[in-house]
Amino acid sequence: MATYRRTNLPKITYRVNYQIQASEVRLIDETSKQIGVMSLSEAKLKSAETGQDLVEIAPKANPPVVKLIDFSKFKYQESKKMKAEKKGIKGGELKEIQVTPFIGPQDFETRVKKTKEFLTTGNKVKLSIKFQGRQITKKEFGYQLIDRFLAQLTDIATPEGEPKLIGKQLVFTLTPVKKKK
User: Fold this and answer.
1) In the chain, what are the domain boundaries?
2) What is the largest CA-CA distance in the chain?
3) CATH architecture observed for domain 15-85
4) Residue-wise pLDDT tens digits, 98-142
5) β 124-130/94-99 pair status
6) pLDDT number for residue 11
7) Mean pLDDT, to the nearest integer, of 11-24?
C-alpha cells in the first residue's frame, strides 16, 4: 500500500489591522478594485467606517498592498484557492501495488482494478512482486504475473523498461498512455 505523508508547506501569515507597519499603503476593496495610495491612518479610518479588516496581501510591494475585507472571509477565499491548485496538480505520482507470485484470481482482479484507477488519474504504477521463502526459486511465476497484468492493461498502460529483480522483489513500472485529442 502507498503511505501518505503530510508535506510541510510553508505557512502563510498575513498582517492584519494594527500589525501593519508601513507608513503609506495602497488600498484595495473586496472586489480588488483600487481605492488609492494613502497613509496607514487614513486606511484604518476607512476600515473603521466600513467595519472590515485591513489585510496586508503584498508586503514587499512599494507601497505595500492592503485589502479592505473581513479577515475570516479572506482566509476562506485563500483556502479555496489552495484546494483548487491542489486539484490541478493531481496525478503524476508513483503508486505501488504489492503482490505475491501465487496470487488468487479474485485478488488479482482487485489489484488490476486498483491499478487501472491509478493509471486513469495520471499516476505511474510500480508493480512489486514479493517472493517469500522458497518462492524465489520459481521466478518465472513472477514474470508470468507481469505478463498477465500487461494483458489486462494494454489499452491504458505502457511498460517502462524491463522488470528488475532486486533482492527477493521483482519490480516493474507502468506509465499511463497519453490520450490523443
Assistant:
1) 15-85, 94-176
2) 81
3) Roll (3.10)
4) 999 999 999 999 999 999 998 888 888 999 999 999 988 989 999
5) parallel
6) 67
7) 82
> What are φ and ψ of residue 128, in 5° steps?
-110, 120
| One CATH from 3.30.110.30, 3.30.1390.20, 3.30.110.10, 3.40.190.10 for 94-176 | 3.30.110.10
Judged by average pLDDT, the poorest of 7-11, 56-60, 65-69 is 7-11
- Cell numbers that stand for 14 in this block: 498575513
Average pLDDT over residues 158-162: 88
DSSP secondary structure of 26-63: EEE-TTS-EEEEEEHHHHHHHHHHHT-EEEEEETTSSS
Q: Quickly count: other Cβ atoms within 10 Å of residue 93's Cβ.
A: 13
**The three grid cell numbers given for residue 61, joined into one nine-digit string:** 510591494
